[in-house]
Amino acid sequence: xxxxxxxxxxxxxxxxxxxxxxxxxxxxxxxxxxxxxxxxxxxxxxxxxxxxxxxxxxxxxxxxxxxxxxxxxxxxxxxxxxxxxxxxxxxxxxxxxxxxxxxxxxxxxxxxxxxxxxxxxxxxxxxxxxxxxxxxxxxxxxxxxxxxxxxxxxxxxxxxxxxxxxxxxxxxxxxxxxxxxxxxxxxxxxxxxxxxxxxxxxxxxxxxxxxxxxxxxxxxxxxxxxxxxxxxxxxxxxxxxxxxxxxxxxxxxxxxxxxxxxxxxxxxxxxxxxxxxxxxxxxxxxxxxxxxxxxxxxxxxxxxxxxxxxxxxxxxxx
Length: 318
Ligand SMILES: C[S@@+](CC[C@H](N)C(=O)[O-])C[C@H]1O[C@@H](n2cnc3c(N)ncnc32)[C@H](O)[C@@H]1O
Known about the structure:
Layout: E1 2-11, H1 15-24, E2 30-34, H2 40-46, E3 60-68, H3 73-87, E4 98-104, H4 108-111, E5 119-121, E6 124-128, E7 141-145, H5 157-169, E8 175-179, H6 185-192, E9 197-202, H7 206-217, E10 225-229, H8 236-242, E11 247-253, H9 256-266, E12 270-282, H10 285-297, E13 301-308, E14 311-317
Parallel strand pairs: 6-7, 8-9, 8-11, 9-10, 11-12
Antiparallel strand pairs: 1-3, 1-4, 2-3, 5-6, 12-14, 13-14
Helix pairs in contact: 5-6, 9-10
The structure holds S-adenosylmethionine.
């Protein structure tokens, strides 16, 4: 099959947020090329000791993504340009030139797998479905994961922030709503931590297969979870299907600009006393402030803020 390859020039400062934006508007699989050296923690997490020599970081990052030939590429590129223009108001997004080329049979669905190896979040071992559990790890809580083309290997700091918060609040009675479930990792971990039931929603249809497969591989029964595709922010049918005043925990690891409108909707899905765990908020005071303000406006009390790397997680209570 022939693919259109796009190479977007941006900055290392903006690469995370621009990648998230590309995924949020429906582009699946973004490759990041930059010269930022890996930190010791990155190396440990990736289980690599020896890295190839790289040039000095020049602050430039290239984001590569692919669209099938028949996809409406002009429409999609227009969306990308509009989002970049908006982002330019608060982050240095660089040149934003987009080079286009064509390529045959790119295995972009699988290429990333060479960089995803087992790692731990505290005492939870998260392991790709194609790796073996070592004897020394057999007594850990083990999560097998293959996100496919959906987001959510667990390696991302935003996911880890959510995992730790979910663990604090789960009880055997917990009904959790995982908005933007991607691979299903948050709902799945909540169930592993002892929650009763999980409902996931996402815009990305790939989230359905990814979640079902991951739940099955991890031995979670089909009556413990559901996945729904649609935008809960403005789709009344999805809001009705998800249900009202029903959840003890709502987790949403999505960008701040999505969390703000989401908050005033999701508050109706939560039981009185329920917690709302948000992440995906880039660590600048403006985004954190906006999410907190949205929570307060919706009648939630902000109870905790946690940080990891460049990201923030804010937890509120109804
Ligand atoms: C950063 S990923 C999080 C995936 C996973 N929950 C995790 O924590 O690793 C954000 C996900 O939110 C989804 N998303 C974005 N806007 C959404 C919306 N309005 N409703 C539901 N899902 C949304 C994206 O498709 C993507 O799968």
